[in-house]
């Protein structure tokens, strides 16, 4: 090979270098290379998960654990309404979700002691109490390791982002962050999947036209031309991922029929839930969806009534309905949690009142997959201040979540330093949650 040709190939290879994925700094080519090198169970079950992060810490007393008989300074301004399941009541501002309580379990009386947002999120979104000497992996990173996705799709997608990374598992199990959310009626483009130096697919199309003019068509590139041959195996796979119809279709929510789209509201959370159903259908094994804003120290009831609860109601009800409509609910476990609950006593910082951080008592939702729906598990005391009985630890729910995905919570991993770590050290599987 001449020096001229070698230099030409190098430049073209640099032009097609795959850009970074979200904030991880991991290139898509490196992601695929590490992903292919990882060990996966050969007989992994066809199980998927959607994890909904309610960052900020939602009030249990104003959502799924109301106390209508408590004093006014505790019970708040919302009323409880009956649901599809007799005997189960939830907040009046969740009417759509009330029609889907047969599909999930409300877990009450979950308790821990970490009242700071960052620490609470690390705990609740990994299932392990934070340890300064060890960075635990997010649920999605574990799923990406254990449940293999098709080679042209990522195993773990975060919509739009997540603060929880792969921890000691390493960057190979980082999420693909979309960085944006879908807009109803428009094809959704994932900016995190990009070519190097800011090159977009539109730019590639322009270059394709130029190459065609030079009798070097882009179609020839896709047929393993010299340009594609100059890439290593994983760069070629990354290139195919960002240009493949299958990948574009998976993220393109506009391809859904109107009868399906109409069941999802126009807001970003609902559209993210819509995208999550489509990604799982395409073969993505784990999707994280984020709904933030729950840190209601002030104006708690106004913010919940006018913004947060309607968005949660529309998005989650659409998610459960959409999964059932696509025949995916039985294979997809949905886990909904924040980092803690909020204080039983309403503060007086604003005329509307607020509730502060409160990890001693909170709620979680879990449904789909092998989770038993249509029940309430656990209870809080008459003021929602603590579990009524023994209560549950976040590790218990984490162990159950992994069990539902066919991943043993007692599985042991080796950290890069050679330390043996159990996936969930303290938790016990809640058998009453499972079918």
Summarize the structure.
This protein is of the alpha/beta class. Helix content is 33%, strand content 14%. Helix 2 crosses helix 10, helix 11 (245-251) runs antiparallel to helix 13 (268-282) and helix 13 (268-282) packs parallel to helix 14 (300-325).
Strand order of the largest sheet: 8-7-9-3-10-13-6-14
How much helical structure, as a percent, in the residues?
Answer: 25-40%
CATH superfamily: Alkaline Phosphatase, subunit A
Instruction: Please mark out the parts with pLDDT under 50 across 5 or more consecutive residues, or reply none.
Output: 1-26, 37-44, 194-199, 214-218, 220-231
Number of separate structural domains: 1
The CATH architecture: 3-Layer(aba) Sandwich
| Terminal residue distance | 63 Å
Structural topology:
Blueprint: H1 3-15, E1 20-21, E2 26-27, H2 28-37, E3 48-53, H3 72-75, E4 80-82, E5 89-91, H4 95-98, E6 104-110, H5 117-124, H6 139-146, E7 156-159, E8 176-177, H7 201-213, H8 218-222, H9 226-229, H10 233-243, H11 245-251, H12 258-261, H13 268-282, E9 286-290, H14 300-325, E10 332-337, E11 341-342, E12 357-358, E13 362-368, E14 375-377, H15 394-404, E15 412-414, E16 420-422
Parallel strand pairs: 3-9, 3-10, 6-14, 7-8, 7-9
Antiparallel strand pairs: 1-2, 4-5, 6-13, 10-13, 11-12, 15-16
Helix pairs in contact: 2-10, 11-13, 13-14
